[in-house]
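Marked as duplicate of an earlier ticket. Keeping the data here for the record.
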Amino acid sequence: MGDFFIVINLQNSQWNSKEENSFCLNIGVALTERLADKEKKKASYYDLATHLREDAYLTEERQRIKKDKGGWLGYKLTDTTNLGEFIEYFKIDLEDNILKRLDELKTIKDCVSFYEKYEFWGNNLKLLIEECGLNVN
């Protein structure tokens, strides 16, 4: 996105087993100026200025549904999970909620506006933007 990247990182649980698999999405903004590997022009989880899980991008209704079906980490698949239903349910979260919200982040100003409701991460983003000398307006 020019001055920033949007990063989505899938994190699985170290306690996953054959019977149960839990995972979550770590999502955030990485500033291009602060990338660890500027040559690749590719952001990773470690470059994020904001670290939020998928719930931050879901409607309250989707958060309730996910909590009712999910594992302690986020999403959960077990040996009894109906895979077709799970895929549909995850697709709604990803396409209709998460990606839709992320698509609204077109500028640094949009990012600041979205993340300011998460005080720590909003303040961290503003500080890093200032350090990079980027214009928020």
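See parent ticket for discussion. The mean pLDDT is 93.
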